[in-house]
Design goal:
Largest sheet: 6 strands, antiparallel
CATH superfamily of the largest domain: Galactose-binding domain-like
């Protein structure tokens, strides 16, 4: 019985893993590109434009990576991380001394401050009282100027007046945006130590967590107050850098009437911007742009503009209008000779095998305007193992998905570490001799039939496994009955 149970489990395992046993070969893919990683270990490759133009699946399921021995390597595909550009610059600070004992005892309540309409400090003075020592420095008011929205202040640097020898003091820094509410952000000890050779060892800066503020107040907690020769601010600006973009210009062919144009589109392109390239000057073209859908598909349709009156057939293909807009190219001599040209429109990601442009009956275009699609390429991550050089292969509509999760390719890597990886380089696009030809049907049109075939194969596998289980259980029950009959016969004897 145990032997037959083992056979059954082996048959079940073989039936469940039949598709996984199919081997990937480099020659099964129509196109390849040589990949050269910059270093060993985990490598990063922004997917080339050629991959999207020649892949035959909308999900890049036919993308593979092989080493020089033809072994398939594990890889992961992910969206490119948002990069940031950090710049540091030094800003001059306008300094206003506060003198007099009243400034120390009452903060800024006894201080007259004049500002311009843009917030710039004009003057700072202390209202004196009898007995005040007007020449005693108590604090410094700093005006750092107006900062842009991406700029933050991360420190101050101090310069001693000429002729000053050794100096040491502990200072407190408070900041404000309105000269009314003040926030203490830290203290530090400033030191300048000079030797007989006029060499100076200095701690002349104060650093703190980068933040935005317009004004600052510097006061002394220990040491002699000093009017510094100059104070500068260390400004840090950080701005997001958009990932590299890719684009393609498609040429149209006539549709069912003179105002309709069809644009064959590679199915892998995840277009998120669209535009028209108008060659004729002084052209205004109201259009409806849509894609070809199959009635069997249940899709979530994104619309930039609502379109009414579009009937959907119960079966077959139909045009799904996605946006109504007007493209133009206008030259006006009375406007300094400047030309107005419509730009590309942003939209939710759309993948299709055919874009359809429907103009008005009065369009009268002699030739189809070129359609421009833009997208952000994904990034491929892989472990540079095996024997180089590596080959990036694609172009096989029958290939199942092979991408792994990022945690299986680069476990433990953070986003910043992945972004810091040097990018691998790719060679020229090469066509594979003897590779399978492209399927004549579009990927979108064939998807329902492939899905039905897959479910049919799975159901057939379940039926076969059920039959084997039934046969095995029947035989096991017969053996048990025969064993019981033999035991009963021996007891009667």
């Amino acid at each position: 019985m145990n032997r037959r149970l083992t056979i059954f489990l082996a048959l079940a395992t073989c039936a469940a893993s039949t598709s996984a046993m199919a081997t990937d070969r480099l020659q099964d893919y129509a196109w390849r590109m040589t990949v050269q990683p910059a270093t060993g270990g985990v490598a990063r490759l922004p997917l080339p434009k050629e991959v999207y133009l020649h892949a035959r699946t909308s999900t890049l399921a036919d993308l593979r990576l092989f080493d020089a021995n033809g072994k398939a390597l594990a890889f992961a595909i992910g969206a490119p991380a948002v990069q940031s550009n950090t710049e540091q610059r030094e800003l001059p600070v306008r300094v206003f001394p506060l003198s007099g004992s009243s400034a120390s005892s009452e903060g800024l309540q006894n201080v007259d401050i004049r500002t311009a309409s843009d917030g710039r400090l004009l003057s700072v003075s202390v209202r004196s009282r009898p007995g005040d020592q007007a020449d005693v420095l108590q604090a410094l008011i700093l005006d750092l100027g107006r900062q842009d929205q991406h700029s933050r202040i991360a420190g101050l640097r101090f310069t001693l007046p000429g002729g000053t020898g050794n100096y040491s003091a502990q200072v407190l820094l408070e900041v404000s945006d309105d000269l009314k509410q003040w926030d203490a952000i830290g203290t530090t000890t400033l030191n300048w130590l000079r030797n007989s050779d006029t060499q100076t060892l200095a701690n002349d800066s104060m650093e703190f967590a980068a933040r935005s503020f317009r004004y600052a107040r510097l006061s002394w907690q220990d040491g002699q107050p000093l009017a510094f020769a100059s104070i500068s601010a260390q400004a840090v600006s950080q701005a997001s850098v958009a990932p590299p973009r890719a684009s393609i210009t498609l040429q149209g062919k006539p549709g069912k009437d003179a105002s309709q144009w069809l644009y064959a589109t590679p199915p892998a392109i995840p277009a998120d911007s669209i535009g028209l390239q108008l060659d004729q000057p002084n052209t205004v073209l109201p259009v409806t742009l849509g894609v070809l859908r199959q009635a069997e598909q249940v899709t979530q349709r994104h619309r930039l503009y609502r379109h009414h009156g579009q009937a959907r057939p119960a079966q077959g293909s139909y045009i799904d209008p996605l946006l109504n807009t007007t493209f133009y190219r206008i030259s006006n001599a009375g406007n300094g000779g400047k030309e107005r040209v419509s730009g590309d429109l942003s939209m939710p990601v759309v993948q299709t095998t055919q874009w359809i442009l429907q103009g008005s009956a009065s369009s009268n275009l002699a030739q189809a305007p070129a359609l421009r699609l833009g997208w952000t390429p994904d990034t491929l991550f892989f472990l540079a193992s095996g024997k180089p050089p590596y080959q990036l292969a694609f172009g096989n509509s029958k290939a199942p998905p092979a991408a792994s999760s990022l945690s299986q390719v680069a476990p433990g890597f953070q986003s910043a570490e992945l972004l810091a990886l040097p990018a691998a380089t790719v060679g020229a696009l090469t066509a594979q001799a003897g590779a399978p030809a492209a399927a004549p049907a579009s990927a979108d049109a064939a998807r329902p039939w492939r899905l039905a075939a897959l479910w049919g194969a799975l159901l057939l596998g379940v039926v076969v496994l059920g039959f084997f289980a039934w046969r095995l259980l029947t035989q096991m029950k017969q053996e048990q009955d025969q064993q019981q009959e033999r035991e009963q016969g021996r007891e009667q004897n």
